[in-house]
Specification:
With 402 residues, the chain is α/β, with parallel strands linked by helices. Helix content is 42%, strand content 14%. A hairpin with a 3-residue loop joins β9 (352-354) and β10 (358-363). 38% of the residues are buried.
């Protein structure tokens, strides 16, 4: 018989905390100010939000484990009970910290969190939610109360740590551009970097790759379906038909990106109109399944139509696309890693412009400067090379930015 007592939540929490490994931490772990009273951690499904908070509980509450409780709103306990019941019980029984996973699955969650911070003013609350989570003020305005953090998938730098135990500090973009030759030479003396880079492009963005082995692609496809069919309806008022079309749009885009999209043609294929089509693009981007690129002028005018569309990361490309183009893989990697540290836009010349200043062309080892040779602060991000020279920088090094 299923145990429906509230004590079952404590047993589940203790079991999960005990089982989590703490030998390696994500980049965000030490950036979070865990002393804040209200913390929100957003991120795509599968990037490691749950592991992050379980690690914190394990390392922080060793001497006082009863003070911290982890609950996931996926737990069947919540089909017949409310989160308010848990919080009241935990607080009145000496709890000081509560960690709530999958908050987007709870109705009117913003109002609930606001009420909790009002009623339990000395209770620390950390919650996680989908990358689609809207921190709007239309229900409970939490903007002045909380710190919001976003957890991305593994950078190539983190993959080196997870896979081979190679610790490298994150680089600032300015330092990478100025000192890439020296940095690359030091690192490539220790490891065959290009072989590891190829592995990362195939399966290194999502931490669960270490558990999946040959089943990684199937697992990632399953994650995509879960995001659209289970997570999206909690965040947006969408029909099953719209979700199905959004998945169809993703598959179509996976076959043809990057592109300057013919949106009208895409909408015709999906048998939808412009308004619904743009909404679906928005769903896919907020879910961290695609990335759109626009010019600076378009971004300033807040126009909806993108100039280019990419899948969010290269792992998705290998999992969803029947055929992958090496040029697309390179550009997808560069965009995915670089927009963690700057605003990336689509320039009139070149491939990517970061923060309106640094211009990049992405290509193979024989890529030339012909297109951008007369432009200040222009660089080549070159694949298939371990080290670079001058303004030619190895592509893999842009995975060292976070």
């Amino acid at each position: 018989m299923e145990d429906t007592s509230i004590e079952s939540l404590y047993r589940t929490s203790a079991r999960l905390v005990k089982g989590v490994k703490t030998s390696i931490h994500r980049h965000l772990y030490n950036e979070i100010n865990w002393d804040n009273w209200l913390i929100a951690i957003k991120g795509a499904r599968g990037v490691g939000k749950t592991t992050l908070i379980l690690q914190h509980i394990k390392e922080t509450f060793t001497k006082s484990p009863s003070q911290a409780l982890y609950v996931s709103l996926d737990n069947l306990w919540f089909t017949t009970h409310t989160l308010s019941e848990v919080v009241e019980y935990h607080y009145t029984h000496g709890g000081t910290h509560i960690f709530i996973d999958e908050i987007h699955k709870y109705p009117h969650w913003q109002t609930l969190i606001k009420n909790m911070t009002d009623e339990y003013q000395d209770l620390h609350i950390v919650y996680t939610g989908s990358s689609m989570l809207k921190m709007s003020a239309d229900e409970g305005d939490l903007s002045r109360r909380q710190r919001v953090y976003t957890l991305r998938g593994l950078s190539f730098r983190e993959f080196l740590l997870f896979d081979k135990g190679i610790a490298v500090s994150p680089l600032k973009l300015e330092d990478l551009l100025a000192s890439h030759e020296e940095i690359a030479m030091r690192l490539t003396e220790k490891v065959k970097i290009l072989q590891l880079f190829e592995s990362y492009l195939h399966h290194g963005y999502y931490p669960f790759y270490k558990r999946e082995a040959d089943g990684f692609g199937d697992r990632l496809q399953s994650v995509v379906k879960t995001i659209l069919y289970e997570d999206l309806p909690y965040v947006e008022p969408v029909t099953h038909a719209t979700i199905r079309k959004a998945l169809q749009m993703l598959v179509i885009l996976a076959k043809s990106i990057p592109q300057t999209p013919n949106m009208s043609e895409l909408y015709n294929v999906l048998e939808t109109n412009r308004e619904q089509g743009m909404k679906m693009l928005g769903f896919l981007e907020s879910a961290s399944l695609i990335r759109t690129l626009t010019t600076e002028k378009k971004r300033m005018r807040n126009l909806a139509k993108p100039d280019k569309i990419y899948l969010d990361n290269t792992n998705l490309m290998y999992a969803l696309a029947v055929k992958t183009e090496v040029g697309t893989i390179r550009e997808t990697f560069f965009l995915n890693q670089s927009d963690a540290v700057g605003e990336v836009t689509y320039p009139t010349t070149g491939d990517f412009l970061i923060d309106g200043r640094w211009l990049f062309e992405v290509g193979g080892r024989h890529k030339s400067f012909d297109q951008i040779k007369d432009i200040a602060d222009s660089f080549l991000a070159i694949d298939d090379v371990e080290t670079g020279h001058g303004n030619k920088i190895p592509l893999w090094m842009f995975g060292m930015l976070y």
